[in-house]
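Example record

Each entry pairs one chain with its bound ligand, zinc ion.
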Amino acid sequence: MTDDSTLADDAAPVSPCHRGIFTIAGVIPSQLQWRDMTYEPLRGKIWTVSEGINRSIFIEGKTGVIAFDTFGSPMGAIAYRSAIDRVLPGKPVHTLVYTHDHLDHTGYAADFAPDARIVAHELTQNVIVARQSDGQLPATETWSGETAWCEIDGVRFLLVYPGPTHGDGNCAAWFPDLKLLFMVDTIIPGVGYTFLPDWHLASYIPTLTRLLALEWDVFVPGHFWLTDRDGFAENVRWYEAVAETAQEAIADGVDVDSLHEVTRYAHERLAADHGALFRFNEYAGMNLLRYVYEFVHGGWGVEGNTPACHAPLEVPHAH
Ligand SMILES: [Zn+2]
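Structure tokens for the complex follow.
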């Protein structure tokens, strides 16, 4: 072996997949790990797909597929695409809709459907363009405001941006004929997700509550399993309880620099009414700590300090 070939090996790409915003050298094994997807028909032509943690939907159109989001790794995106190809063989994914900007849901269109038309809210697009993450493709079409009817390949749904909730431009998709609402990283079964990353808490509850004006009875979340209007209300009650308990923790002089102390307080105050919620033991302390810092810091950035819109959500006439 000559020195030249050694140089050639060094110059070869270390990974054939997209790397997101990772800066460490070499392959990132967890990003290249195969994900087993489970999928099932929901209503009409809508399917839901999950690897156990994240969840999305895709819809069969007349000539192809409209898919939401990409999952959070190159191999997750490839597994998602394989699941669609198995369920709807021969139908191309011609349209991809982004729910919001986060890489764990929309980071890998380049591995999922690189040639698809991509639709996103302009607030989502702003972050994606600024971030320049390897594999997260910018949208090819953006929309703005609160609502946009989509009529794509025989499939009709309303995109709804109710205001700041989580991430940037996070929108729901409402399928009125099927009474189904899909929204990622807001309502989930159980307590809030981990430490409520990039949640905009000041306006969160009233903004989210606007979605109750729409007619639906099944809610498809971006994590875990399906829920309904009762599950929606239960999740909102949790946020209300944590918001109040956070203020009481500060008033009581709890050491808010200590996750241990905040977790102890969360269990003491919240377990009686909410302890049966999914992942209470894992996340209650982190949820409370996040809310504590909302009251210590104020909301974060513009989205975290935008007053909630309390006006009823208006559904525009479809044209
Ligand atoms: Zn997110």
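DSSP finds nine helices and twelve strands in the chain.
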